[in-house]
Design goal:
Rossmann fold, 41% helix, 3-stranded parallel beta sheet, alpha/beta, single chain, 6-stranded parallel beta sheet
């Protein structure tokens, strides 16, 4: 039976550190504050916003919601982001995406100040991932994967790692963060011809493809560490990962659950970025 790598204790450990930092900031007259920019009423956006607000409250970080109808113009949205950039009482900005089709996502990312980009979406943040330097933060989900590996004392140095998925949100930054830890990483994407072979050969397998049941028993090997980043919903509304858990769990050495794994840690990483931004901007 595999060890279940739950996210809750990882999030709790991050929370304890944040509480101490928030107390110090508040004592100095600074209240770390997250602004959440939401366009429309998509269920996934509302759920993520609710989780982020709850996590903020748990460690003493303030939050405010900046909401717009689906019909908001691009100029209105960009003006709001510029105002948040200039607002000294806001330390981090989370823009819930994807945005409506009439909004230029690149223009939105270009407008947000890197120092307040707590979700790691700007070019400045991506540059920080590549170089380990600069203004910006690592994408939250990619960093959440690393926090889980660290908490459970899973060594990355010299490890063979396969990452399934090549998005700028998770797959590519996770690949870079692992490489920065001296792991030997194979990144699989939609044009990879034979995904099961490098998957089985890895000591650590991370799936961030966003396809339910993609990783089955033919992708894994005994003793392997499996990190399931996928968040998918069945026709019955059940949340599932990329990994066919019931097939894979009896084979591997350890695995993150969905729900209760990476997603639980992601919001804690987001809030930790707000605290770090408040320290840098104070």
């Amino acid at each position: 039976m595999a060890e279940i790598l739950k996210g809750a204790p990882v999030a709790a450990a991050l929370g304890e550190k944040m509480k101490k930092d928030v107390e110090s900031l508040r004592a100095a007259g600074v209240t770390p504050t997250l602004a959440i920019v939401r366009v429309g009423e998509k269920g996934s956006d509302l759920a993520y916003e609710k989780g982020a607000v709850k996590r903020c409250e748990s460690v003493g970080v303030a939050s405010r919601s900046v909401t717009f109808p689906e019909t908001v113009t691009q100029d209105e949205l960009l003006d709001s982001i510029r105002a948040l950039n200039d607002d000294g009482g806001v330390h981090g900005v989370l823009i819930l995406r994807p945005l409506p089709e009439h909004i230029d996502d690149e223009a939105v990312r270009r407008t947000l100040a890197p120092g307040k980009d707590v979700d790691g979406i700007t070019d400045g943040s991506l540059a920080a991932v590549m170089s380990g330097k600069g203004t910006g933060f690592y994408p939250c989900t990619a960093q959440a994967c690393m926090e889980i590996l660290d908490y459970y004392n899973i060594e990355c140095k010299s490890a063979r790692v396969t990452v399934i998925g090549a998005s700028l949100v998770v797959g590519l930054p996770t690949t870079v963060l692992l490489t920065n830890r001296f792991a030997t990483v194979t990144n699989c994407h939609i044009f990879t011809k034979d995904v099961p072979t490098p998957s089985r050969g890895a000591e650590i397998l991370i799936s961030a493809a966003g396809k339910a049941g993609l990783v089955g028993k033919n992708h894994v090997s005994p003793g392997q560490i499996v990190v399931d980043v996928g968040i998918n919903f069945t026709s019955e509304g059940k949340m599932v990962g990329d990994v066919a858990f019931d097939e894979v769990e009896p084979i591997v050495g350890a695995i993150t659950p969905v729900p209760g794994g990476v997603g639980t840690v992601t919001t804690s990483v987001l809030v930790s970025h707000v605290v770090e931004a408040a320290k840098a901007l104070s």
